[in-house]
């Protein structure tokens, strides 16, 4: 595994498939004929995604799973292999957030955040790599964040967990270095227009929003699809995110300071909001791809179209390069 290929018929397991980037990724893989295993806590929200994926022609297995539960994650991997015989790509798209200065959150919220973003991600990585080792190939796509590298003092604990996720991915890339057919890709999105901001625990006193300029989730879905076709160690998308990564390499302290100020200032709207745990502990019954944070219908349509076009272009380039072979 780990070769260049089509995702048609590939078995793709996506955690966090009920919302945002994970949901957009499920739809993108379904449109390319992948066989999907969709996981998140809410069975109801997953049923919506299942319906939309089937409408695009994808085969789907839904496994409601809380990734903080070790037995549930083992069961997820087991059911995927039992149904489809293997897992070609495992996309880790789960995270929860807490917004507010350190000390505003409850201790239970800190535990839940670390449990989900770090412990849950580790459990998924263990299950994915165990499956890949047993079958001899596979691609793990870990979704980190620009906040895996850069600070935002308005979400200090979330950023801390994303640093940990990046650390895990870098270590796993070295751990699988002797297995050319097992690959670990790290995706570092900048701000993305998803429901994440309504779902986060919020202690800022104000409503949250995706920090501008937020990208369409379809752009990230296209980047993840590209990792499945042609694995890369580090992927981001969008001019701002690329610029931030380059600037951080050249002038780390100045970049950290600028990004911290910008992202803390623009994470909140003027409108006030009562403090609350968001969906840290309990999932909302329905989900969506978009968070509605990008202004202007034209801009929203363009971003989504661009993401879909990127996914299509990647497939055309692959066919021109490799012919029509399957992902393996
Ligand atoms: N949005 C951004 O601006 C942004 C920027 C950089 C990086 N990212 C990263 O991108 C990834 C996806 O974020 P997103 O914006 O798409 O967020 P999102 O819309 O809030 O989706 C998060 C997903 O995680 C699932 N989830 C939460 N807790 C879970 C648990 N314990 N077990 C299983 N599933 C759980 C949710 O479903 P249920 O509630 O049904 O469980 C949902 O499907 C995350 O890793 C995030 O850190 C996002």
From TrEMBL:
<dbReference type="InterPro" id="IPR002347">
    <property type="entry name" value="SDR_fam"/>
</dbReference>
<dbReference type="Pfam" id="PF00106">
    <property type="entry name" value="adh_short"/>
</dbReference>
<dbReference type="GO" id="GO:0016491">
    <property type="term" value="F:oxidoreductase activity"/>
</dbReference>
<keyword id="KW-0560">Oxidoreductase</keyword>
<dbReference type="InterPro" id="IPR057326">
    <property type="entry name" value="KR_dom"/>
</dbReference>
<feature type="domain" description="Ketoreductase">
    <location>
        <begin position="10"/>
        <end position="195"/>
    </location>
</feature>
<feature type="region of interest" description="Disordered">
    <location>
        <begin position="275"/>
        <end position="295"/>
    </location>
</feature>
<dbReference type="GO" id="GO:0016020">
    <property type="term" value="C:membrane"/>
</dbReference>
<protein>
    <submittedName>
        <fullName>Short-subunit dehydrogenase</fullName>
    </submittedName>
</protein>
<dbReference type="InterPro" id="IPR020904">
    <property type="entry name" value="Sc_DH/Rdtase_CS"/>
</dbReference>
<comment type="similarity">
    <text>Belongs to the short-chain dehydrogenases/reductases (SDR) family.</text>
</comment>
<dbReference type="InterPro" id="IPR036291">
    <property type="entry name" value="NAD(P)-bd_dom_sf"/>
</dbReference>
